[in-house]
Design a protein that fits this description.
The structure holds two protein chains of two kinds.
Chain A: E1 4-7, E2 10-14, E3 19-25, E4 32-38, E5 44-51, E6 56-59, E7 62-67, E8 72-77, E9 86-93, E10 98-100, E11 104-109
Parallel strand pairs in A: 2-11
Antiparallel strand pairs in A: 1-3, 3-8, 4-5, 4-9, 6-7, 7-8, 9-10, 9-11
Chain B: E1 4-7, E2 10-13, E3 19-25, E4 31-38, E5 42-49, E6 56-57, E7 65-67, E8 73-78, E9 87-94, E10 103-104, E11 108-112
Parallel strand pairs in B: 2-11
Antiparallel strand pairs in B: 1-3, 3-8, 4-5, 4-9, 5-6, 7-8, 9-10, 9-11
Classes of the chains: A mainly beta, B mainly beta.
Chain lengths: 110, 113
């Protein structure tokens, strides 16, 4: 059974700092890995998706990497802003089933 | 293009009552999913569907039923609500091929008293 872990559970950084969020998974037989953002009381917004054959994906200030052999993915956020404050979730699995981590709650302070 | 929509947004039920949550998507996606999100537990898959007329059990299916009579709609039913079903319910959809990227609705907050 796939298990997904995200560490740390919460993180507070000053504005402008670069930061890395970590995601680890136990079963490397995955189809893809998705990173989501969730604002309080809201739904999930897809940020980046890395297919199993890829090593990384970039969108603006966000860069996600995938190392299947070690069961790890990282989400790098450059030059963080207060608007980046949210919970970040990673999820991975087969084409039809995703297993989610419990998320990292990020606070970017002025 | 509304994406994935969910009805209702909020609901309070008494133990033993029944209700149906409606999910609709306008992206012509084959796959649809129902998840529940509880504090400290992450999102867990309740049921999913790989096409019109098909359904399958996820990780936590007990106490729920689903139907996919039309491709664009996926219904989640609670026949006899229990306090343990207090949660936030999310619907998602994804295409049949390609990246299988999942797109989520805004959620339904359900409280069972």
């Amino acid at each position: 059974k796939q298990e997904v872990t995200q560490i740390p559970a919460a993180l507070s950084v000053p504005e402008g700092e670069n930061l890395v969020l970590n995601c680890s998974f136990t079963d490397s037989a995955i189809y893809n890995l998705q990173w989501f953002r969730q604002d309080p009381g809201k739904g999930l917004t897809s940020l980046l998706l890395i297919q199993s054959s890829q090593r990384e994906q970039t969108s603006g200030r966000l860069n996600a990497s995938l190392d299947k052999s070690s069961g790890r993915s990282t989400l790098y956020i450059a030059a963080s802003q207060p608007g980046d404050s949210a919970t970040y979730l990673c999820a991975t699995g087969t084409a039809s089933k995703l297993t989610f981590g419990t998320g990292t709650r990020l606070q970017v302070t002025l | 293009n509304a994406g994935v929509t969910q009805t209702p947004k909020f609901r309070v039920l008494k133990t033993g009552q029944s209700m149906t949550l409606l999910c609709a998507q306008d992206m012509n996606h084959e796959y649809m999913y129902w998840y529940r999100q509880d504090p400290g537990m992450g999102l867990r898959l309740i049921h999913y569907s790989v096409g019109e007329g098909t359904t399958a059990k996820g990780e936590v299916p007990d106490g729920y039923n689903v139907s996919r009579l039309k491709k664009q709609n996926f219904l989640l039913g609670l026949e006899s609500a229990a306090p343990s079903q207090t949660s936030v319910y999310f619907c998602a959809s994804s295409p049949l091929a390609g990246t299988y990227e999942q797109y989520f609705g805004p959620g339904t907050r359900l409280t069972v008293t």
